[in-house]
Amino acid sequence: MFEALDFLQASPTIRNYLFPLHNKQDKNLQISEFARSNPFNLFNTSIAKNVDQLQAIKQIVAGPNTLGPYIVFGPPGTGKTTTIVEAILQLCLLNDTRIIVTAGSNSACDAIALRICECIEADARFRYDRESPNRVLLRLFSETRKREEDLNLVHPLVLKNSNLEFVKTSSRSNSYRIIVATLCKVGIMARIGGTGNVTHVFIDEAAASSEPESLLAIVRIKESNKCHVILSGDPKQLGPVIQSRRASSLGLGQSLMERLMASELYKVHDGGKYDCTLQTRLRRNYRSHPEIVRLFNKLYYNNDLIALAPSQRINQTANWPMLRNSKFPILFQATYGITNRHPLSFSSYNELEAEVVCWYVSILLHNGLGNGVKVKQADIGVITPYLAQCALLTHKFRERHQLKVKVGTVEKFQGHEKPIIIASLVSSFTGSDFVSDPRRLNVLISRPMSLLILIGNPHSLCQSEDIKFIIDQCHLHGHLFNV
Fold first, then answer.
1. What confidence tens digit (pLDDT) does each residue in 261-290 have?
2. What superfamily would CATH give domain 2-282?
3. What is the separation of C-alpha 309 from the centre of its chain, rounded to a whole number of angstroms?
4. Which contiguous run of DSSP H or E holds residue 419?
5. Domains 2-282 and 290-481 equal at CATH topology level
6. For a tag site, which of 12, 289, 296, 361 has the least CB within 10 Å?
7. Which of 460, 456, 463, 464 is nearest to 481 (CA)?
8. CATH annotation of 290-481
9. How far apart are CA 76 and CA 285, in angstroms?
10. 40 CB neighbour count, 10 Å cutoff
């Protein structure tokens, strides 16, 4: 990353690209003529009904504005990954395109590689000789990752299209149209000249990577206007992990995507207009019940999102006896347990809250949601801010043979969804950094599709205005339970 910063300082072209100046003469609030007129035979036909997704794909394929990186701003459930995957596949159908897809974590790279591989496998436009070295996609693992035991968690389709299966050295990666690798691996490839003539760099979950980290996929690869950089993510969710508060206060906690979106060139004008050649802001949420969307829409997205979940998802919880208001599938269970510290990890846990979580899980699994709607263990996700609480809950679920209930921190759930989310907020009669972090709360309340259950001490948690708003909404709809 230090070398990337030095390279940036020595390259005025890339510096101007990443620090673009606002020029009124270049402002274009309309999508380009080529993008408007060029029809697409979509891999995912549902995109045809979404004007925002279609706008992004057309503009990326047509060639975004060369003044700065193209941004796809994707709030929760708006189909960001669907949009990016479609754009990558459409570019791959063109001649002379070579694409790098990257993200800060292996899990993010694996997720988007799987989506692309599934489309390639299913579509006749990508029929090829399976013995040929000129394959479409290569998931490029680092040497250290090859030795890790967690590879058994990687989907077989991703492994089949990885360098574990076909390529023993990164030097042969030039024969692939799409390379998927972490930012660190891409930086190493670029350093030794192994990236070739790249036409497009897609940085997914860009808001979760520090700016020097993002530079790894840009500075040695983008050498002209022929290479386009596309950033996708959501700066209102989890940002870069910066351990040093001093470094964070000096700006290292701000991602490249967040900095650009705050600049004049990427500004949203009156009436919601913006330069479509530089960005697309996805608005249509297909994931969650409208009342769940309303929470994070009001708190974090200026009420710009449009809730479009299918009616089946909206009606799924309507007959659950625990809900006094069938149209409001959010409840807050007041629980006044004591917050304890684990003696070895110094992480927090709350025994009473863990018991309440297990009670709700058992009720859901045994009785379902009413009207014949059954609940499986895999339908439930349990989110808690602390690793000690995760360990406690995992132990309790193991004792109850409920191993398929997913338990994890907010970080583990970012980018994922579950029909039912139960959150144990742990902090009781004590303060917490978690409740004062809007990004983490945003991720938590935007994971559920049909039902959100929050468990915690309302008096301690109401120090956060955002959580106070949620508790007040639950109270207003009769869903603040003080048992």
1. 999 999 998 888 999 999 999 999 999 999
2. P-loop containing nucleotide triphosphate hydrolases (3.40.50.300)
3. 18
4. strand 418-424
5. yes
6. 12
7. 456
8. 3.40.50.300
9. 7
10. 14
